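Notes from hallway chat w/ T.B., transcribed later so I don't forget. T.B. wanted the structure written out for a chain they're using in a teaching module, and asked if we could keep both sequence and structure tokens in one place. Agreed to drop them here.
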Amino acid sequence: MSRHAAALAALLALGACAQPQPQPRYLVGAPYQMGGVWFYPREDFGLVETGLAVVAADSWAGRRTANGEIHDPAQLMAAHRTLQMPAVLRVTNLETGLELDVRVNDRGPANSGRVVELSRRAAELIGLRPGGVAQVRIAVVAEASRALAAGLPNPEAPRIEIAAAPLAAIGREDLAPPSGATQAAR
């Protein structure tokens, strides 16, 4: 390799390091259509579902997820059709008994017969092979999901400052009954 080529490669490597990494954000999202079916995302800290899990294709590696992160098959990530992002989801493989907490940061799976799509690493840890499916139970871990959401920017709902009502004495006044009114018996 020539000196110029080596210098250019070094500059490109430094430039790649200097680029800011995408920051995740809290997102519920608008209704959307996937595969001809409409989905309505919502904030749900009590979700529990049972169904089939599938492994996300490694071809998704490097693309942006729905909440702005970069998909990394080596991370413990998941995709769900309607949950807020991010959310912490406990996935239990009902066939092996293995369970794992993952972070929901994308929409999917596209196949309507599936409830969750797992990154390659998350699938490996619960005994699901690439290309396979497994019967799973998913449940949102409410406290961890709320804590995660509280620490991220939320472009959908900016924080509103609410001033407290002024403190003052509340007066009371007794009024005479209107003319013609009768008092009920006690």
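Follow-up for T.B.: Residues 4-16 have pLDDT under 50 and may be disordered. Might be a good example for the class.
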